[in-house]
């Protein structure tokens, strides 16, 4: 009985340490992200034809090289993703720690870090694709006034579509995978390769699940701190809510209404 009690206390202490470290990482990445957004030369962005604002993240600073701009964007993107996704990732990592087949506490911490790294790798790869695409579209909008004027309408349509995706089987399936992985039936071993694969797999499910919500953030403004906060709350709510499908649908309704209003304004009906 004494040994069992001691083991339980030891596990509780390790869980508390894991949660404290996770909270520290969240606070640090969120703080750096907010400071980075507010320290940009024009944090509000650049006014464009069509009465909308382009985020400065899609523009090179004076004297900045393309590799430098890419590195700056990727650093900002990874920090932002860690801060935004950590509240919904921590429960999955905690469950992984409960079912992984190892009794070494040091190894358990290492495997948890590897699984988290696999998750981050997925979002880093998304950032690598997003940077040239965003920069190219921004360059076109700055060069062609007609296209720039069409952006508010396109943004409204994108938000409307993102809201509609909240009601699809695709969303439900990937959201369920995000909530249920890893489970006790996964047959997890204590191997580093297994941890990395699980992290990548979870990252892919997460990207498919909340990609539409991240698209809303990109459309609204990637460096918009209030928008980041709202999207983070939305992503977390549909993972944590006891009736998560209802949470996803409520978010979908809000997004769809917001998109419809944006479309009405863009066509002069609002």
From TrEMBL:
The chain crosses the membrane at residues 16-37, 69-90, 110-134, 146-165, 213-235, 247-267. Keywords: Membrane, Transmembrane, Transmembrane helix. It holds the Pfam family PpoB2. This is Putative metal-binding integral membrane protein. It comes from Luteitalea pratensis.
């Amino acid at each position: 009985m004494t040994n069992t009690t001691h083991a339980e206390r030891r596990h509780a202490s390790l869980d508390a340490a894991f949660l404290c470290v996770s909270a520290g990482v969240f606070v640090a990445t969120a703080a750096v992200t907010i400071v980075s957004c507010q320290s940009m030369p024009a944090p509000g962005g650049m006014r464009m034809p069509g009465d909308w604002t382009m985020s400065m993240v899609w523009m090179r600073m004076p004297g900045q090289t393309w590799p430098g701009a890419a590195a700056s964007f990727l650093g900002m993107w990874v920090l932002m993703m860690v801060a935004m996704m950590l509240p919904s990732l921590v429960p999955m990592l905690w469950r992984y720690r409960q079912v992984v087949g190892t009794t070494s506490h040091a190894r358990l911490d290492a495997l948890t870090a590897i699984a988290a790294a696999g998750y981050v790798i997925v979002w880093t790869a998304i950032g690598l694709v997003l940077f040239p695409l965003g920069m190219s579209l921004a360059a076109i909008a700055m060069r062609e006034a007609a296209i720039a004027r069409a952006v508010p309408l396109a943004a409204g349509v994108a938000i409307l579509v993102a809201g509609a995706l909240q009601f699809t089987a695709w969303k439900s399936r990937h959201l369920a995978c995000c909530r249920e992985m890893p489970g006790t039936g996964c047959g997890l071993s204590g191997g580093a390769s297994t941890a990395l694969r699980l992290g990548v797999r979870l990252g892919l499910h997460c990207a498919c699940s909340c990609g539409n919500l991240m698209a809303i953030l990109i459309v609204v403004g990637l460096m918009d701190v209030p928008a980041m906060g709202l999207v983070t709350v939305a992503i977390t709510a549909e993972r944590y809510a006891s009736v998560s499908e209802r949470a996803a649908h409520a978010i979908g309704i809000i997004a769809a209404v917001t998109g419809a209003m944006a479309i009405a304004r863009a066509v002069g009906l609002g």
